[in-house]
Design a protein that fits this description.
The chain is an alpha/beta fold and 349 residues long. The chain folds into two domains: 249 residues, Aspartate Aminotransferase, domain 2; 95 residues, Aspartate Aminotransferase, domain 1. It is 38% helix and 16% strand. It contains 13 helices and eleven strands. It has a seven-stranded mixed β-sheet with strand order 1-7-6-5-4-2-3, with helices on both faces. It has a four-stranded antiparallel β-sheet with strand order 8-9-11-10, covered by helices on one side. α4 runs parallel beside α10 and α5 crosses α6. The longest helix has 22 residues. The termini are far apart.
Length: 349
């Protein structure tokens, strides 16, 4: 799609609206005295409003990910960005979004809040994706396609070739949620950003970067789409403390990379170990920082883990996940305790 075609998908009222203009929109240079924003004048770390467009943070992300700052949008977690995209492009009770199942549940939550229908394409028993069947699910009112790669809860990726084909073939926005991409061997779609005007890539500091508590999501997209989201976002959607902490975390990438490699090694070890247990029916390959496992009597197993002080995620009620439990990869010490508990369960059952 051309960017002109993408912009034609924007809700007419959003395209026509005038955004709120904050004090920091109207004056962006340096000054000695600020009397424009009704702030408390007694200076300390956070008496001033944050930069509404997170310029210093975007510069750090540009250096980290190799994407120009004008292609970056930052949100209060990726969930805010998902909601903004639906609000900007989907007319309530008229348009719909498309995704696969099982996948990340917030796509449906945001669609429901905005009274936008969600359509599903069902992954197969191994969580594989039939691309042509997926595309056939779309209709003229399908504005956004959400795809999580690596997928949550299954952990598998969609190849960059298949995602490129989808971008070429789908007449709407293609949102590739790469929350777990730093743990994957499959490449990111960032290299394709300038090739497809309808491509949006979601990433986060909550997973590999170890900053779930600051709630910071990053999206990469065409500059014209960034401008649309800037029109409708809250004026100061990312607070000053979050921006400062994020810059510090991004600058410590050598330490983070060491943690990622450790998690990947622990993932391999746990994957192999799980395959030796007689109550485990299937272990699904994963490119994320978790492993999905199908076990006998998942509720009994889940309760046993709780009795051992271990909290995993029971995914039994999710589509295609009957009998499944999801383990996040912990530290080596935590993973060793998990293995000992799994052996104990096997002995007792």
């Amino acid at each position: 799609m051309t960017i002109a075609s993408v912009l034609n998908l924007v809700r007419p009222n959003v395209a026509a609206m005038t955004p709120y203009s904050s004090a920091r929109d109207e004056f962006t240079s340096d000054a000695k005295i600020f009397l424009d924003a009704n702030e408390n004048p007694y200076n300390w770390a956070f008496n001033r409003y944050p930069d509404p467009y997170q310029k210093k943070l975007k510069e750090a992300i540009c250096e980290w990910r190799g994407v120009d700052t004008q292609h970056i949008f930052i949100g209060n977690g990726s969930d805010e960005i998902i909601d903004l995209l639906i609000r900007a492009f989907c007319e309530p009770k008229v348009d719909n979004i498309l995704t696969v199942r099982p996948s990340y549940g917030m796509y449906k939550v945001s669609a429901d809040i905005n009274e936008v229908q969600i359509k599903y394409h069902d992954l197969d028993e191994k969580f594989g994706l039939d691309i042509d069947s997926l595309l056939a699910c779309a209709d003229t009112q399908t504005k956004i396609l959400f795809l999580c790669s690596p997928n949550n809860p299954s952990g598998n990726c969609i190849s960059i070739e298949n995602l490129s084909y989808i971008c070429q073939s789908f007449n709407g926005l293609v949102v590739v949620d790469e929350a777990y991409i730093d743990f994957a061997s499959t490449p990111s779609m960032l290299s394709k950003l300038k090739e497809f005007s309808n491509l949006i890539i979601l990433q986060t500091l909550s997973k590999a970067m170890g900053a779930a508590g600051i709630r910071l999501g990053v999206a990469f997209m065409h500059t014209e789409i960034v401008a649309i989201l800037n029109k409708i976002k809250p004026p100061y959607n990312v607070n000053s403390a979050t921006q400062e902490i994020a810059i510090d975390i991004i600058s410590d990438r050598e330490n983070i990379e060491g943690q990622i490699q450790q998690i990947k090694a622990e993932r391999t070890s746990l994957f192999q170990f799980l395959g030796t247990l007689n109550f485990v029916e299937e272990v699904f390959p994963s490119e994320a920082n978790f492993i999905l496992v199908r076990v006998k009597d998942v509720f009994k197993f889940y309760d046993f883990l709780l009795s051992q002080g271990i909290v995993a995620r029971n995914r039994d009620k999710e589509f295609r996940c009957q009998g499944c439990i999801r383990f996040t990869i912990g530290t080596p010490e935590e993973n060793e305790q998990l293995k000992q508990s799994l052996l104990l369960f096997q002995q007792q059952n």
